[in-house]
Amino acid sequence: MKPEIEILAPAGSYESMLAAVQAGADAVYIGGTRFGARAFADNPKEDMLLQAIDYVHLHGRKLYLTVNTLLKEEELTDQLYEYLLPYYRQGLDAVIVQDMGVLHFIRTHFPGLDIHASTQMTVTGVSGARFLKEQGVSRVVTARELSLPEISAIAGETGLEIESFVHGALCYCYSGQCLLSSMIGGRSGNRGQCAQPCRMPYRTEGMKRPEYLLSLKDICTLEILPELIESGIYSFKIEGRMKKPEYVAAVTSMYRKYTDLYLTQGKEAYCVAKEDRDMLLDIYNRGGFHTGYYHTRNGRDMVSLKRPNHAGIPAVKIGGMQGKSSIGTALTDLHAGDVLEWNERGDNYTLGSPVFKGEKVLLRLPSGQCLKKGMIVNRVRNQELLDRIEREFLLPKMQEKINGILILSPGVSAKLVVEYQGISVEVYGDIPEPAQNQPITEERLSKQLRKTGNTPFCFERLSIQLSGELFYPVQSLNELRRKALGELEKKLVSRWHREQPELSDRQGDYSEESVQNRSAAGRTEPVYTAFYALAETLPQFEVLCGRASVKRIYLDCNAVRSIWNSSTVKELTVEAKRCKKEIFLAMPHIFRASSEARYEAGYQKIFEDTFDGILVRNLESIDFLQKHDYTGTIILDHNLYQFNCEAQKFWKENGLPHGTAPLELNCRELKQVDMSRMELIIYGYLPVMTSAQCIRKTTEKCLHVPGQMTLTDRFRKSFLVKQQCDYCYNVMYNTDPLMLAGEYPEVKRLGPEALRLQFSAESVQEMQRILELYEAVFLKEIPFTESHPESDWSYTKGHFKRGIK
């Protein structure tokens, strides 16, 4: 039976899955050996994952498999079907996906398998959720940045199941939009390998010391849990597939406890006990908790500025030195095995004996260290808590209560009938013998049969029907029980097992030669006579208007303040067309309800008889335009990923055949998709983060005026960050621009539909220099070594050569 509210727990290992179920989870989400967004978790292999599916079903729970990364062409065509098939047949409940190609593939080849849209799809509004519902998605995992009213609107207007994060780590960037780890270290978050550069220190102009400006506190929503339920959230998702089973059990048990409290006693009786909140802080927190974005748009109080990892809880107040040791007063009860830590480096001390609150604590410090009087030392490991969690959730074995009847009669095979939830099994054993000495009793039979040991069952009611004075060997009784319980388990889990789906033509011909032939069908070898270019500022737009080598201009929506009310849009488009340019509007990176309302009010002014087409960057913009029957050309930007031909097929079927090549595929991998319908970005400072947080607000104060700042990392690399206040998000750009001028021969062989230059913060003079270089190389075919004089330019080739794993 479907629960009113689902507690969805993370399982980064088989052991964590067991802990989650024991602690009260209704469902778990888990990754296998491939394609999951936590590549470095202890993900179970196929045999254990198949066992896990049966285990959760036996105990009335569900299991969702994470396939929430972007798949390269050969992975989707050669590996995905065989990877999913065993789990599908075993009764897998749902797949969590990011890649539209994967969505399309599963919908086609695995009928009846629920598809959940991952938070990596960056669903931020009703429009995006509605679009996915039309594609067969049954559940949406909302972006973490949404407010409760926004979530309520999605739930109310789409009827989809809503899954939202209630506890655990927050990414600084909108999930699915982060390329920072990928671009600076080659470990892609879109491939489950994020190196978490957001947990490193940065500084802005004027800061004396670096701080963890991008490291958000973990969320804890116990206090507002009734509001979450009333907003329409169905599934309470706990983050933590990289965490240990103890963490999973502790957090799951708390959300189980308080969800049940609300459902049984209502909002008036709802109150979170201090000791329960303290327990969650003790198990893991980053400088305290926050309720996340549900009530807060952004802010400094959401950021863990001092440290990016477990901060623990205040445990000892230092009173001074005693010899070479520090002496302090315990602020809470301490236990043998507790670990106390006093700095970011992780210097710590493990207690050898318990200390009660208020008693003195002696800390023996490493040579040369001294703790100042008044300093607070935190506990980062509570051994007594971990031991208690182990006793309550990790050691006990979960067993379902069954009913049984044992019938022993002279001259007739022994019969054992077991029943659970209306499903029964009867088995037969050896024929009882007449008793020679002491006959067996009902009490002894019952006691022996109830020894169900490591099986998933225990007897709630057991009836013994014994006729006459009989002898029945213990070995025969054990075998009878083993056979009955084994067949009952098999019969129960088989209810979820599926037949193999009919094998459709899933292979096709995706060879490199075939794709190249398909891309070149009806086309001669490309000869590029002009570029497309994106301008984020009006001076850049003016430069592009005057450049004969630029055929199409993408005008970023942030180039014009309050574009929905602006009187200059018409003037700009008239100017572009006077210069014989196509002009496209590049819509916002994030298009939330407030922005959609403004665009709705100004639709005629923005879109009708103004732009030749639109560059879109999110699902919400697509649905918005389709709802208005927009007839201009729509181009998908690089972050509406087309990693494989199946994704291209998906978008083409939805009337959107033109896109932008993804930034994380190398030139060899780009040859495996149809580049004849994709633009290739060959220059630009690439956006590596789009965040609902604001660097200016975190370090200074919000001015409500667009601007830009610079973040500097520990390697003294600088990253431009723009505050886009019309849409209330920040965009962070890579430290060096992408430059593929030196890769002209390879680019030409790829044969992209068009070549795009992207300008973000370049001055007019810098633009002129860049345009001259690209005109020389791509339009006049002057070798890069000749057209690129020695200079101090610092640039990157991105992933065009190296790619990602």
Task: Note the main attributes of this structure.
805 residues, alpha/beta, TIM Barrel, Elongation Factor Tu (Ef-tu), domain 3, 4 domains, eight-stranded parallel β-barrel, 26 helices, globular
Q: Count the strands?
A: 35
Q: Whole-Å distance between the termini?
A: 41 Å
Shape verdict? globular
Could you give me the name of the CATH homologous superfamily of the largest domain?
A: Aldolase class I
Looking at the structure, the CATH topology of the largest domain is: TIM Barrel
Radius of gyration: 31 Å
Q: Largest sheet, if any?
A: 9 strands, mixed
Q: Which range does the strand content fall in?
A: 15-25%
Task: Name the quaternary structure.
Answer: single chain
